[in-house]
């Protein structure tokens, strides 16, 4: 039997050539109808403006890879929802739905597991199982929109996985969500977060997609960074920050730096001063400091890492030092404190460990 077509993965022009070719040989406008139904999470049988025969032949030959909601944890404090989602092959991933004043935001996963090996992160504990397809990443949004009955306007690629280690599907996903007639999420409302795979940061800049780049920096010197993030061995801070500078000069888009505060590892006043210094040195164009923002995130404790979060005082002190040195920094507000499950923990704790 031929493998079924992963129809949700098709970009508008691909869907058009798919549907206008045999065996379907449909008029072009059908592609637009199908694209819009698919992005609204509608199955073939409910695509009421398509001929019945087309609906049934699509159902026979195509698969819609929207994940199913396996478990849902709802915060009673702020309405944040953590989803454990099941993919077609049984693998499990997570997504988090957050309500902000600027719109509903979904934090999506890009891989089943991760191979980057960051010491503090639950998602990477048992390595990478596989990449997600663009349809599965998009499917996370569709599943959350259907489940909540609301529209999602912002996306952060900060769930399980390293988006730039799944580069082609990540770019396809970005093209899908911003294509006319689909789910309609503007790329200015999308953040792509990376641990710092420098060549792929440069490739992403070349695509011209106007996303916000978010860099998981977490340390201001190579010794500290390499001890918690193995990727730093391949792409040290100087190379990473040079790529960030070039990103801004190419795209004109502000960079945001994530800095997870780990007690006794990277949270001293000296670390804060070193961070301000290194950012000002590299994020600089002829004496002008480039626009950037630092998000400070108190570590979510992950069992077995031996690492713990910084005290409130250290966080405040760190933030104050950055601000006094001219670096804008905010301490990330913790949403859903009553359903605390740091990124990747739901999946790890569920039976079967992701399979
Ligand atoms: N791989 C990408 C995106 C996924 S992680 C990246 O590295 O950016 C999303 C963010 O959560 C990253 O900044 C990551 O470093 C951070 N993170 C991972 N584990 C964490 C933990 N236990 N506590 C706080 N932040 C964590």
Q: What does the model show?
A:
This protein is α/β, with parallel strands linked by helices. The protein has two domains: 5-63, DNA polymerase, domain 1; 68-349, Aldolase class I (TIM Barrel, Alpha-Beta Barrel). It has twelve helices and 16 strands. Strand 4 and strand 5 form a beta hairpin. Helix 4 (134-148) packs across helix 5 and helix 10 runs parallel beside helix 11. The longest helix has 15 residues, at 134-148. It is globular. Mean pLDDT is 94; it is low at 351-355. S-adenosyl-L-homocysteine binds next to strand 10 and strand 12.
For the structure shown, list the relevant keywords:
single chain; alpha/beta; DNA polymerase, domain 1; TIM Barrel; 2 domains; two-stranded parallel ribbon; globular; binds S-adenosyl-L-homocysteine
User: Proportion of β residues?
Assistant: 15-25%
Q: CATH homologous superfamily of the largest domain, by name?
A: Aldolase class I
Could you say which structural class the secondary elements and strand pairing correspond to? alpha/beta
Identify the overall geometry: globular
Q: Count the strands? A: 16
The distinct bound ligands, ions and cofactors come out as: S-adenosyl-L-homocysteine
Supply Rg.
21 Å
**Largest pleated sheet:** 10 strands, mixed
CATH topology of the largest domain: TIM Barrel
Please give the CATH architecture of the largest domain: Alpha-Beta Barrel
CATH secondary-structure class of the largest domain: Alpha Beta
């Amino acid at each position: 039997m031929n493998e079924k077509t992963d129809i949700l993965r098709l970009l508008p022009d691909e869907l058009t050539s798919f549907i206008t070719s045999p065996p379907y040989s449909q008029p072009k406008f059908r592609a637009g109808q199908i694209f819009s139904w698919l992005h609204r999470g509608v199955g073939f049988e409910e695509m009421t403006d398509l001929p019945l025969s087309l609906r049934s032949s699509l159902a026979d030959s195509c698969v819609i890879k929207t994940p199913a909601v396996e478990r849902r944890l709802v915060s009673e404090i702020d309405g944040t929802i953590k989803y454990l989602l099941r993919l077609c092959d049984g693998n499990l991933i997570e997504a988090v739905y957050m309500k902000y004043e600027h719109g509903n935001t979904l934090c999506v996963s890009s891989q089943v597991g991760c191979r980057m090996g960051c010491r503090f992160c639950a998602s990477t504990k048992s390595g990478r199982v596989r990449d997600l397809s663009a349809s599965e990443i998009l499917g996370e949004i569709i599943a959350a929109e259907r489940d909540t009955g609301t529209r999602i306007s912002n996306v952060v690629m900060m769930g399980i996985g390293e988006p730039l280690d799944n580069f082609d599907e990540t770019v396809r996903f970005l093209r899908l969500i911003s294509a006319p007639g689909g789910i309609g999420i503007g790329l200015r409302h999308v953040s792509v977060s990376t641990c710092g795979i420098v060549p792929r940061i440069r490739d992403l800049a070349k695509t011209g997609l106007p996303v916000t780049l978010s860099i998981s920096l977490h340390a201001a010197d190579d010794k500290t960074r390499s001890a918690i993030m193995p990727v730093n061995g391949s792409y040290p801070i100087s190379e990473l920050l040079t790529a960030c500078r070039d990103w801004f000069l190419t795209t004109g888009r502000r960079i945001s730096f994530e800095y997870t505060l780990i007690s006794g590892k990277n949270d001293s006043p000296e670390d804060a001063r070193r961070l301000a210094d290194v950012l000002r040195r590299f994020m600089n164009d002829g004496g002008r400091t480039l626009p950037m923002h630092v998000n400070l995130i108190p570590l979510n404790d992950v069992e077995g890492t031996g690492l713990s979060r910084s005290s409130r005082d250290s966080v405040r002190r760190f933030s104050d030092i950055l601000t006094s040195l001219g670096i804008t920094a905010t301490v990330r507000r913790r949403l859903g404190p009553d359903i605390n499950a740091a990124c990747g923990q739901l999946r790890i704790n569920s039976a079967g460990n992701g399979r």
